[in-house]
Design goal:
Helix content is 47%, strand content 15%. The protein has 288 residues and is α/β, with parallel strands linked by helices. The protein has one domain: TIM Barrel (Alpha-Beta Barrel). The chain has a nine-stranded parallel β-sheet, sandwiched between helices. Strand 5, helix 8 and strand 6 form a beta-alpha-beta unit. The structure holds zinc ion. The site of zinc ion has 4 residues, from strand 1.
């Protein structure tokens, strides 16, 4: 079986040769394609940068790891397997939005990633947009809407990290406004109840399993029933960094053990991904 990972952050600081080994590792364990999330525009000041990164990921943030994301194309073109689908991580983009999204598409980005955290999230240890950019929640909604509007025009699917317990209404409106654009709201939107209502109402809404292993372990029965119910809309996402492909493997192993039904497992790691990503692909090349 071939596997697809919808959620890998493009942080690495090893040599190109070592990175080649990491891609080789993913190919060997069966990955046909991975989405990499690339923060190509970011503030110079590293402390400002850290304000928009969950505390758990701060150890990956080094000057070299940031520089490696500015232009990922010469690097990813060196490796053919697994196929790499770059998502522009637009969390720091505030201005010239139309032009930047258009240019990113021309460069080869095929999707957009957003971290919609307008206020501080103390659980994930993210300072949020208010503290980082000094802008109120409404302004962050406006900027996020604009990025989504232009990504949608460019046929780019959108991966948007958002806590639906707080911002579910805003996201519901967006999903309704862009029915032809597919959205992945990772981590089950931090609320199975809230994401269920979006999944029920919007066929362009997907979610992924990123960083949910410990929650699934604590409450397997209700997570299994959620997965059973929404088996056509859940994607496999490891939330790993590309520099640590072992985490992709351990997450895949976990999901494989957790979901006993092989047909549902196949949907999560393979079939659903193809439906989710198909929009930007229909105009370029078919998936492997
Ligand atoms: Zn993530």
């Amino acid at each position: 079986m071939k596997y697809y990972d919808a959620h890998i952050h493009f942080f690495y600081q090893c040599s190109l040769n070592e990175l080649k080994g990491k891609f080789g590792f993913l190919e060997k364990i069966g990955f046909a394609s991975i989405n990499i999330l690339v923060i190509s525009e970011f503030p110079e000041e590293i402390n400002t940068y850290l304000k928009m990164i969950p505390g758990a990921y701060h150890p990956y943030v080094t000057r070299k790891a940031l520089e490696n994301q500015k232009d990922p194309f010469p690097v990813i073109q060196l490796f053919h397997q697994p196929e790499t689908i770059p998502f522009l991580d637009a969390r720091f983009i505030e201005n010239n939005i139309e032009e930047k999204i258009k240019m990113s598409r021309q460069k080869g980005y095929q999707g957009v990633k957003l971290l919609f955290v307008p206020e501080e999230d103390s659980t994930l240890r993210i300072d949020g947009m208010e503290k980082t950019f000094g802008r109120p929640c409404k302004q962050s909604e406006k900027i996020t809407s604009l990025i989504i509007e232009h990504a949608s025009t460019q046929d780019m699917p959108i991966l948007i990290h958002v806590d639906l317990r707080k911002y579910g209404d805003f996201v519901g409106e967006i999903l309704g406004s862009y029915p032809k654009t597919n959205f992945n709201i990772p981590h089950f939107g931090f609320s199975r109840k809230a994401i269920s209502s979006l999944l029920d109402r919007h066929s362009n809404c997907y979610t992924d399993t990123a960083s949910l292993e410990s929650f699934m372990e604590k409450d397997p029965v209700s997570y299994k029933s959620f997965i059973q119910q929404y088996q056509d809309r859940i994607l496999f996402g490891s939330d790993a960094v590309i520099g640590q492909p072992e985490r992709v493997q351990s997450t895949l192993d976990f999901i494989s053990r957790f979901i006993e039904n092989r047909e549902i497992f196949h949907k999560l790691v393979n079939k659903n991904y193809k439906n989710y990503i198909s929009k930007s692909f229909s105009k370029t090349s078919p998936l492997p």
